[in-house]
Design brief:
Layout (H helix, E strand, L loop, with lengths): L3 H43 L3 H34 L3 H28 L1
Length: 115
């Protein structure tokens, strides 16, 4: 029969070994959890904050308003240009009006000369 002291020492050694193994496993698990936390923290640092997002959105709204105003001004300018006569058409109308006036005066002079 095995003496109680040897049995107790064997059980104590097995218990210490299992505690060492459990502590090692716990350290490994905690190390992995810490790495995961660090990855999450690093990822969180790359996220856009609410204030940064609001600043970007406000800037985009200003840009959109500026571009919209520019488009409105360009449309108004285009409408004004389309509503105006070209120099060629003005000169042609002037030529016809002068020609018409001259012919009218000649017709009046011709009628007065016949009388």
């Amino acid at each position: 029969m095995i003496p109680i002291k040897e049995l107790f020492d064997a059980k104590l050694a097995a218990l210490e070994k299992s505690i060492a193994v459990a502590a090692n496993l716990m350290d490994t698990r905690l190390h992995a959890m810490n790495e995961f936390r660090l990855q999450l923290r690093d990822q969180t640092l790359t996220f856009l904050t609410k204030n940064e997002h609001q600043i970007m959105v406000d800037s985009l709204h200003k840009d959109i308003k500026f571009i919209t105003d520019d488009i409105r001004v360009l449309r108004d300018s285009k409408s004004l240009l389309e509503g105006k006569a070209s120099q060629k058409s003005v000169n042609l109308a002037l030529l016809f009006s002068i020609l018409g006036t001259v012919l009218g005066i000649l017709a009046i002079v011709a009628v007065l000369v016949k009388v």
